[in-house]
Design a protein that fits this description.
166 residues, 5 helices, alpha+beta, Gyrase A, domain 2
Length: 166
Amino acid sequence: MTLKRSLQGIPARWNALGARERMGLGLAMTVILVAVVWQFFVAPALVTLRTADAQARTLDAQLQHMQALQKQAKGLQTQPALGFDDAVRALTAATQQTLGTSGEMVVNGDTAKVTLKGASADGLARWLAQARLNARSLPLEARLTRAATANGTNWNGVLVMGLPPR
């Protein structure tokens, strides 16, 4: 009830003010209203407008990347399934060609354990791509540590790769 009474007294107080005071309060309320409209409506819209082109370019690049991945996935789905021996041969070849002496592979059942010792980041990335595409093998487990050296980043650890059943 106090709020209601306070609000009822506003017109009487307004009329009691002089013309100069009413004009000053009206100007102050206008400035506050303009500031609120700017803060909550105009400024966010301007920020969105300024960043829209950069966001569109970023989203376009992401869309192209996703479409390339989709095309690659469809290509992989259409390839015939590899047998165990073919997958082991492909994974062994990828390990020897890409990782060289920094990777050692041991086949155990339906998995291949690849031990990395100082493998370069680029070499590891290429090897993972070859393992996925050529041997159709994906990591089941990874315990890797990154080591920064003068030549760049090297990786040490173990990757357990899945193989098709025998």
